[in-house]
């Protein structure tokens, strides 16, 4: 059986980290006989430069026809003055919406070898293993918005159906983990959050009575994430809260460059991307940490190819590299020589036991 993978390298460090992830996938494919086939396509600023639009029709058609899509990152200062309808980020949001990818899985696990890298006290990091399920195709990202003169507005809208499906997806995942779910909202202020809490409460009570359920307000959740991170199992929340909380949570692991993600819908191709952006401040220097991208490739193997063993082997190889003290610049200790993106990818390949 073959699996066709569309690779959207994107902008900034996107192509640098994607190259390492694809290298690992190629090695896995030939060693485990997975039949992965890769096709490159344009998204974001690279697509604007080439064809004048961040999500070309050709790219969308290729992604819809693929088994899975791998993305580096999009955006950067070069396109910050582009008209709002054709910013690089519009391409990514359009792709998520068109593929119906409503559940964005963002795992955060502390790696013992990196405990010293996190700004948090080591004892707080023991046993941290969180899965944030971020709603990805609704909320303020996709509501009506406009700008006129000296005023502007963005609206946040959610339907019961949108909340139910992401809460169910998160609850099923909680069942396969430690059986705890924390739903995050701002129900003391927002109507969408009142609908969120009502719906989440009903879904969990009626369909998942076996789960331990907690509800938190997002401002308090941002604090609890730092004060008691090991208490959380699955966290489910709306689009923008999930975006913000996961950048915060990356510091539990130690760097933005470490966290992977998988965006899934009801069947159809999944989209796999590190949670970080195009990191314009370090682009072109072979300095980006490719862990988030390589671990996203592992998620692709698990969720889109049913290749659990291969996924575990990739994760183990990354752990082994970090365990051996190999570091990119973002996670290196003072005075330590950092590996470049490519050399780090090579080190992962060398430890791939398949
Ligand atoms: P960013 O995630 O690109 O960078 C934030 C900080 O983290 C920077 O200091 C950067 O150097 C560091 N960082 C990020 N990835 C890293 C890696 N792999 N290794 C080491 N350090 C890393 O966020 P930003 O600077 O706010 O945004 C830059 C651009 O990226 C913007 O145009 C934004 O819209 C876009 N963006 C895209 C995505 C995506 O494509 N999924 C995600 C976030 C931001
Ligand atoms: C992310 C990014 C995107 C988001 C941007 C680039 C649209 O920050 O994937 O986390 O906000 O979803
Ligand atoms: Mn983000």
In short:
This protein is α/β, with parallel strands linked by helices and 354 residues long. It folds into two domains: 1-104 and 254-354, Isopropylmalate Dehydrogenase (3-Layer(aba) Sandwich), CATH 3.40.718; 119-253, 3-Layer(aba) Sandwich (Isopropylmalate Dehydrogenase). The chain is 42% helix and 18% strand.
CATH-defined fold name of the largest domain? Isopropylmalate Dehydrogenase
Radius of gyration: 20 Å
Fraction of residues in H or I helices: 40-55%
Bound molecules: nicotinamide-adenine-dinucleotide, 3-isopropylmalic acid, manganese (II) ion
Total helical elements: 12
Total number of β-strand segments?
A: 12
CATH class of the largest domain: Alpha Beta
> Which segments are poorly predicted (pLDDT under 50) over 5 or more consecutive residues?
none
Indicate the CATH architecture of the largest domain: 3-Layer(aba) Sandwich
Structural class: alpha/beta
- What is the arithmetic mean of pLDDT? 97
Give the helices and strands as they follow along the chain: EHEHHEHEHEEEHEHEHEHEEHHH
State the fourth-level CATH superfamily of the largest domain: Isopropylmalate Dehydrogenase
For the termini, the CA-CA separation is 19 Å
Sketch the major β-sheet. 10 strands, mixed
Please give the domain count.
2
Question: What topology, given as strand order, has the largest sheet?
Answer: 2-1-3-12-11-4-5-10-8-9
What is the overall silhouette?
globular
- The percentage of residues in β strands lies in 15-25%
């Amino acid at each position: 059986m073959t699996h066709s993978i569309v690779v959207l390298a994107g902008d900034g460090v996107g192509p640098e980290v994607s190259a390492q992830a694809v290298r690992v996938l190629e090695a896995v494919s030939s060693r485990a006989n997975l039949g992965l086939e890769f096709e490159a396509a344009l998204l974001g600023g690279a697509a604007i430069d080439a064809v004048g639009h961040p999500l070309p029709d050709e790219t969308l058609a290729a992604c819809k026809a693929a088994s899975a899509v791998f993305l580096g990152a999009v955006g950067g200062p070069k396109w910050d003055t582009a008209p709002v309808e054709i910013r690089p980020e519009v391409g990514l949001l359009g792709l998520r919406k068109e593929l119906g990818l409503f559940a964005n899985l963002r795992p955060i696990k502390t790696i013992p070898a990196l405990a010293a890298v996190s700004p948090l006290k080591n004892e707080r990091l023991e046993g941290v293993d969180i899965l944030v399920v971020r709603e990805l195709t609704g909320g303020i990202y996709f509501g009506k918005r406009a700008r006129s003169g000296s005023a502007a507005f963005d609206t946040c809208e959610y339907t019961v159906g949108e909340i139910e499906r992401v809460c169910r997806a998160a609850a099923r995942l909680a069942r396969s983990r430690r059986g705890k779910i924390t739903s995050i909202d701002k129900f003391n202020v927002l109507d969408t959050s009142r609908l969120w809490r009502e719906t989440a409460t009903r879904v969990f009570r009626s369909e998942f009575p076996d789960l331990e359920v907690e509800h938190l307000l997002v401002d308090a959740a941002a604090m609890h994430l730092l004060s008691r991170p090991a208490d959380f199992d699955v966290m489910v929340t709306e689009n923008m809260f999930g975006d913000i909380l996961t950048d915060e949570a990356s510091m539990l692991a130690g760097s933005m460059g470490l966290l992977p993600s998988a965006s899934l819908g009801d069947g159809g191709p999944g989209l796999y991307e590190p949670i970080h952006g195009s990191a314009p401040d370090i682009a072109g220097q072979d300095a980006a940490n490719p862990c988030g991208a390589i671990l996203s490739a592992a998620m692709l193997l698990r969720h889109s190819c049913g290749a659990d063993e291969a996924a575990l082997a990739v994760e183990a190889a990354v752990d082994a590299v970090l365990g051996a003290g190999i570091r990119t610049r973002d996670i290196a200790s003072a005075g330590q020589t950092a590996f470049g993106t490519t050399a780090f990818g090579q080190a992962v390949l060398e430890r791939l036991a398949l």
